[in-house]
Amino acid sequence: MRKIPGNQEHRAWEMGVEGYAVDVPVTGINNGKITLSVVITCIVAASCGLIYGYDLGISGGVTTMPSFLLKFFPSVLKKAAATKPNIYCVYDSQILTTFTSSLYIAGMFATLVASRLVKTLGRRNVMLLGGSTFLVGSALNGGAVNVAMLILGRMMLGFGLGFTNQAAPIYLSEVAPPKWRGAFGTGFQFFIGIGVLAASCINLAAAKHPHGWRFCLGLAIVPAAIMTFGALFISDSPSSLVERNKLEQAKRALLNIRGKDTDIEPELALLIRNSEMAKAINEEPFMTIFQRQYRPQLVIGMLAIPFFHQMSGINAVAFYAPVLFQSVGMGNDSALFATIILGMVNILSILVSAFAIDRCGRRFLLMEAGIQMIITEVGVAIVLALTTGTDGTKRISKGYAVLILVLMCFYAAGFGWSWGPMNWLIPIEIFPMKIRPTGQSVGIFVNFAATFLVSQTFLTMLCHLKYGTFLFYGGWILVMTIFAALLLPETKGIPLESMHTVWEKHWYWRRFVQG
Ligand code: BGC
Does residue 57 have a pLDDT over 60? Predict the structure, then answer.
């Protein structure tokens, strides 16, 4: 087979360059049919988000539980008991944030290994591997007797996330019918939302029990078991099976997900063609992504989206919502309750996204939500500035605490229908098969690194910048909204295999992809 430079591949194929299947019309592919099998398969894959959401949500609640703090972080408890604590600084403890963020350090390293495994073992097997690691991590956390065990358990969960956060979103976009890829892709974020909400409810129920924290952390075994067990019953994605030369299985998987009466030959042929092209050019994948023709994917999918997703400040809210609401003067229960409300708004907004994303498009949602989130961040900053006093020792009245909650809900809704799901969708949409696992792995690495940064710095930032913290994130959201307006092409409804056309038409990116 002839070797053709990457950016020429699609055109070479279209022009009928020797060695490539020239008779595969992209239009022959079933674009919109949704079968029961594809729905079930995608639910199982998306449930990898469940454990992620649960881990995210549970740590915020557990770190405000007096029994947990007394056992592992007594100094934080002492500070909270001070007669007139500075409300912004109560939970500012590096070791406490290390508990939360150790997960991301582990995830960062696992994701680099995962890209090779996703290729050689397949997407489904990597999900299984991740699930087993979660089971160990949850058991370690639930049974922890010292900080080391606690952090080790968090790291095991992090390794698992490095695997599943990579494999599941790839799986989802490869299996979904192109016309509904956006809606299916939001499934991952939807399950993250369910996980966060479930964790908030469990936090509330367990908060008063002396061993409530053990129950909260150990219960992560349930979502881990659901996803591990579910993954045993699904087949790998057709792309992955083709990539691993399992053509018969790929055919069966395609028939299953596209429907027995569907002509799957055009899609199969296209997958084979792409896989052959990817194999014909035998390069080190971590070098390939630096080639000029992949500059748009590198900048948008591997760096900007994963980084911006975190600089929206969502995790400042997600991890620390209970801490934050306590800080602004709510009692323990009300703070946990407020977090539940936030979680529900988040889930509803992801449903809005599932409905709107393939109709209004990705860019519209990103820009609308960007404006909404900037307004709410500035709003929270103003309310805090006016009510907490310059040294942060004034308690906020109940009315203002509720106003902050309402503003946060608008913020969470904006995130839920934009940057939340888009982070798991757009990068994979724009990576050609050849660089998909590597691209996704770099993207998740950047995402975890940024999450680590945010989680490690938020409480210290809140302590020093006070209400200015929210202006800081508002500023970032402005930057990312401008980025989306200028540099992000619309990918709605375009089959993964024809994605090269969006770069060729884009005012800026076309200079990198034109041969
Ligand atoms: C992000 C998490 C975040 C969560 C909030 C996810 O997409 O990756 O970092 O905490 O959304 O729901």
Answer: yes
User: What pLDDT shows up at residue 261?
Assistant: 82
Q: 454 in ligand 1 pocket by Cβ < 6 Å? A: no
Q: How confident is the model at residue 3 (pLDDT cuts 50, 70, 90)?
A: very low
**219: CA distance to ligand 1 center in Å?**
20
| Dihedral pair phi/psi, residue 26, rounded to 5° | -60, -35
Answer whether 169's CB lies under 8 Å from 237's CB.
no
Label residue 515 by pLDDT band (50, 70, 90): low
| pLDDT tens, residue by residue, 463-493 | 888 888 899 999 999 999 999 999 999 999 8
How many angstroms is it from 148 CA to the middle of ligand 1?
A: 25
Q: Does the Cβ of 277 fall within 6 Å of ligand 1?
A: no
Ligand 1 centre to CA of 321 (Å) is: 13
Atom in ligand 1 nearest the alpha carbon of residue 189 = 7
Q: State residue 328's pLDDT score.
A: 63
Helix (H) or strand (E) holding 498: none
CA 411/CA 415 separation, integer angstroms: 6
| 456 CA from centroid of ligand 1 (Å) | 15
Q: Where in the sequence is the domain holding 331, given as residue range(s)?
A: 2-513
Indicate which atom in ligand 1 lies nearest the CA of residue 421. Answer: 7
Produce one character per residue of 109-137: b if its CB has 16 or more CB atoms within 10 Å, e if not. ebbbebbebbbebbbbbbbbbbbebbbbb
Alpha-helical segments (H) within 388-467: 398-416, 419-430, 436-465
State how far the Cα of 14 lies from the Cα of 17, in Å rounded to an integer.
Answer: 8
Query: Using CA positions, which residue lies closest to atom 1 of ligand 1?
Result: 420
* CATH number of the structural domain spanning residue 210: 1.20.1250.20
Is 12's pLDDT higher than 50?
no
Q: Residue 88 C-alpha to ligand 1 middle, in angstroms?
A: 23
Q: Is 105 in the pocket of ligand 1 (CB under 6 A)?
A: no
How many angstroms does the Cα of residue 437 sit away from the middle of ligand 1? 20
348: closest CA among 184, 244, 193, 218? Answer: 193
Atom of ligand 1 nearest to the CA of 420: 7
Task: Please write the tens of the pLDDT for every residue from 109-134.
Answer: 999 889 889 989 999 999 999 999 99
What's the predicted TM-score (pTM) here? 0.84
Q: How many domains does the chain have?
A: 1
Encode 458-478: b = buried (16+ Cβ within 10 Å), e = exposed: bbbbbbeebbebbbbbbebbb
